[in-house]
Write a structure and sequence with these properties.
The complex is a heterodimer of chains A (293) and B (186).
Chain A: E1 5-18, H1 19-22, E2 31-43, E3 46-50, H2 56-67, H3 75-79, E4 91-93, H4 99-102, E5 112-116, H5 117-127, H6 142-153, E6 157-160, E7 164-168, E8 171-177, E9 183-190, E10 201-204, H7 212-216, H8 235-248, E11 256-257, H9 264-267, E12 270-272, E13 278-283
Parallel strand pairs in A: 3-4, 4-5, 5-6, 10-11
Antiparallel strand pairs in A: 1-2, 1-13, 2-3, 7-8, 8-9, 9-10, 12-13
Chain B: H1 16-23, H2 41-73, H3 83-101, H4 109-131, H5 144-163
Helix pairs in contact in B: 2-3, 2-4, 2-5, 3-4, 4-5
The chains are: A alpha/beta (293), B mainly alpha (186).
C-alpha cells in the first residue's frame, strides 16, 4: 500500500560543478553535472514539495551569465508534468534557507511553509558576528527572508522546533542542527502510514547529502560516510544525520534521496522531458498514473 | 558617533517603482559586469572603500528581516528589546559614517546615491522597530511599518550592486550552484 506518489522533477542544472563541493576532500578531481530539482509528494488530497528552487526573476540572468546555470524552467511548467499548478501546492518543506532552496516561495500563493526555527534564529545570530564571519551567512538572501515575512503574516509559515512526526499524515520532519546549515531539515515519508515503517519509507535529504558517495563511501572506503563539501556546522553532525537518515530506511542507500545526484535517474524509473530535464518517479500511490511509462 | 543625517535624501522614497522613476537611471536591472570592466582609479578606490560598508549594511538588513519573520511567525525568541536590534543600529551608524566619508567618482555617483538611500531606509526601519513595533503583541502580523522601509533598503542595495562591479548581495560560492569562475570577484 502506498499513500503518496513522489517525483523528483529537475528544473535546471549546472553542467560542470566541482567535485570538491559535492564530496568533502575531492580536490582536483574534475567536475560533475549538478541537477536542481523539486520533490513533489502528491496524495491524500494534498500536494507537498520539498524546497522551491531559486528566484529566477531577480537572479536568473546572473546565474546564467556567471555561474553556468542552464535550462531553467518555471515551477508552473515543471509542475504541469504531474498535473499540478503552483496554486494547488498545499505544503512546502524548506530544508534550509540557502537561496537555491527557498528563493521561489512567492510562486506558491496558497502553500504553507515549514522551516526550522534554528535555521532563522541562528542565522540572525551569525549576522551579528560581523564581516569576519560572513562565510557563515553569505548564501542566504535577505530578500528571500523578507518574502517569508509575507507568508508568516498570512499564517502560512510554520516554524518547527526540532523533529515532528506526522506533520502531514505519514510525513515526518527531522532536524539536523549545526550541520550543512544551522537548522537543516530532512523529510521522511512513511508511504504505508505505519509508525515504524522502514520498508516503505523514503527520506529527502536536502543538502545534507549531495550524491551517493556521501552515503556509501568511495572506492577503497566503501561503507564510510563522506560529508558534503560545505558546512557551517560540524562534519560530525553531518555524518550523524546521514546515519540517522539511513536508519529510517533500513540502511537502504537507495531510499535516502539526494536531489542533486545526477545518477538518481538510474536508480528509479525516469525519462527526459521535451526540454531535456529529468522526470524521476520515486514511487506511485495506489492507482496513480505513471509519468514515465 | 551619530548618523550623519545630511546623507539622507530630501524625502525617503520607499516604493520601488517610484524610487526607480526618481533615480533617472536608464536601467536599474542592467548588470554592471565583472572587474574586467574598465574602471578609473578613483572609482576603484571608491569600490574598495565602500565594499565593507555595503557588506555590513547587507548583514544588518538580513538581521532585521530574520527577526521580522520570526516575529510574524510568533517565535518567542524575538522581543522588541532584542540585543540584535542594538547591534544593527550600531552597524548602521558605522556604515553611515563610512559612506559619508567616501568620495564617489562620476562613475560611482549612481551607486553612491543608492547606498545613501539604503542607509536612510534602514534607519527608518530600525526606528520603527524600536518605537512602533511591539514584537510581543498578540497581533504579530503588524510588521508592515518595518518591512516597508526594510524592503526599500534592500532594493537600493540591489540597485547599487548592479551599478558597479564588486558588490554582491549573495555569496554564490557558498551554496550548491557555484562552479569555479576565473576572474570572479571576491
Amino acid at each position: 500500500m502506498s499513500d503518496y506518489s513522489i517525483w523528483v522533477l529537475e528544473y535546471a542544472y549546472v553542467p560542470k560543478y566541482h567535485m570538491s563541493g559535492i564530496i568533502y576532500g575531492a580536490h582536483n578531481e574534475g567536475y560533475r553535472k549538478l541537477p536542481y530539482g523539486y520533490v513533489v509528494i502528491k496524495g491524500k488530497g494534498r500536494v507537498a514539495m520539498v524546497d522551491v528552487g531559486f528566484n529566477n526573476k531577480d537572479l536568473g540572468a546572473k546565474f546564467a551569465s556567471m555561474y553556468g546555470v542552464e535550462n531553467w524552467h518555471s515551477p508552473r511548467e515543471i509542475l504541469a508534468q504531474c498535473d499540478v499548478t503552483p496554486e494547488q501546492v498545499t505544503d512546502i518543506f524548506v530544508t534550509h534557507a540557502h537561496f537555491d532552496h527557498i528563493g521561489g516561495t512567492s510562486e506558491f500563493p496558497n502553500a504553507r511553509f515549514y522551516i526550522q526555527e534554528q535555521e532563522l534564529s541562528k542565522w540572525i545570530w551569525a549576522m551579528s558576528l560581523g564581516r569576519k564571519y560572513s562565510f557563515l551567512t553569505g548564501a542566504i538572501d535577505p530578500a528571500d527572508i523578507m518574502r517569508m515575512v509575507n507568508a508568516a503574516k498570512e499564517g502560512r509559515l510554520v516554524v518547527v522546533d526540532g523533529d515532528q512526526e506526522n506533520i502531514l499524515p505519514g510525513i515526518d520532519v527531522h532536524a539536523a542542527l549545526d550541520s550543512h546549515t544551522w537548522g537543516c531539515m530532512y523529510v521522511r515519508v512513511r508511504n504505508d502510514g505505519k509508525p515504524d515503517s522502514t520498508a516503505n519509507s523514503y527520506v529527502f535529504a536536502g543538502d545534507l547529502v549531495y550524491c551517493m558517495e556521501n552515503l556509501r563511501g568511495r572506492d577503497g572506503n566503501e561503507g564510510m560516510y563522506i560529508p558534503v563539501g560545505l558546512a557551517v556546522g560540524s562534519q560530525m553532525n553531518l555524518l550523524a544525520a546521514t546515519d540517522r537518515m539511513l536508519g529510517m530506511v533500513g540502511n537502504d542507500v537507495k531510499r535516502v534521496i539526494p536531489v542533486h545526484e545526477e545518477r538518481l535517474k538510474d536508480l528509479y524509473p525516469s525519462r527526459l522531458n521535451k526540454d531535456g530535464l529529468q522526470v524521476i518517479e520515486i514511487c506511485l500511490a495506489d492507482g496513480a498514473k505513471s509519468l514515465v511509462h | 558617533m551619530a548618523i550623519d543625517h545630511s546623507l539622507q535624501p530630501d524625502r525617503l522614497i520607499l516604493h520601488a517603482a517610484e524610487a526607480e522613476a526618481q533615480c533617472g537611471c536608464e536601467d536599474h536591472d542592467r548588470f554592471a559586469g565583472g572587474l574586467a570592466e574598465t574602471l578609473d582609479d578613483r572609482t576603484i578606490r571608491y569600490v574598495l572603500e565602500t565594499r565593507p560598508h555595503f557588506e555590513d549594511l547587507r548583514q544588518a538588513v538580513g538581521q532585521v528581516a530574520g527577526m521580522l519573520v520570526l516575529a510574524a511567525a510568533g517565535a518567542k525568541t524575538v522581543t522588541q528589546d532584542h540585543p540584535l536590534l542594538a547591534t544593527a543600529r550600531a552597524t548602521l551608524e558605522r556604515v553611515a559614517d563610512g559612506i559619508g566619508s567616501a568620495r564617489p567618482s562620476v562613475r560611482a555617483t549612481h551607486h553612491h546615491r543608492h547606498l545613501v538611500a539604503a542607509i536612510g531606509a534602514m534607519g527608518l526601519a530600525l526606528k520603527r522597530a524600536q518605537e512602533d513595533l511591539d514584537f510581543r503583541a498578540v497581533d504579530r502580523g503588524r510588521v508592515d511599518p518595518v518591512l516597508e522601509p526594510l524592503k526599500s533598503a534592500y532594493d537600493n542595495l540591489a540597485w547599487a550592486a548592479k551599478a558597479l562591479p564588486g558588490f554582491e548581495l549573495l555569496s554564490f560560492d557558498q551554496a550548491c550552484c557555484a562552479p569555479q569562475q576565473p576572474g570572479k570577484i571576491h
